[in-house]
Amino acid sequence: MKIKSLLVYSLLTSAILVSCGTPKQDAPKGEDAPLTGEVKIDGSSTVYPISEAVAEEFRKVQPDVKVTVGLSGTGGGFKKFSRGEIDINDASRTIKEEEIKACDANNIHSLELEIAFDGLSVVVNPKTIGLKILP
Questions:
Q1: What is the per-residue pLDDT for 6?
Q2: In what order do the strands lie in the sheet with 37-43?
Q3: Which residues of 96-119 are buried (b: 16+ CB within 10 A; e: fewer)?
């Protein structure tokens, strides 16, 4: 479980780093140079908690980078992404052909990174709906 968490953290951190602006002119060069800029993330409400947690940790080590995370849904996120309004779209599905065409029309290229699988389950208390539990 720790390896999967580390992988998710690494992938999202890499995605955020790639989206950042360039260092300030007077900043030191190399690995220790602080980053500046803005990263906008939006999309799926099921991926939101992962992105928000990674963004929070990233802000601790790169406080000069403004990271915002929204949750307009997968489709809403793809619309914003295809128009260039956000840098990363959290999605709970793969990109559709029409969304790829919308990206292409705006010269936007995407890279899909699977970070997790989400699922739903229905849990009901049997007393709530009047079911009798068999011995």
A1: 44
A2: 65-69, 37-43, 88-90
A3: eeebbebbeeeeeeeeeeebeeee
List the structure tokens of 51. Answer: 């992105």
Q: For the chain, list the domains and their CATH numbers.
A: 2-18+35-105 (3.40.190.10)
* Sequence letter at residue 131: L
Gap between the Cα atoms of 32 and 14, Å rounded? 16
User: What is the Cα–Cα distance from 129 to 135, expressed in whole angstroms?
Assistant: 18
Which of 53, 65, 94 is CA-nearest to residue 77? 94
Tokens standing for 56?
Answer: 């929070």
Phi, psi of 63 (to 5 degrees): -65, -15
Strand partners, 42: 89
pLDDT in tens, 40-80: 999 999 999 999 999 999 999 999 999 999 999 999 999 99
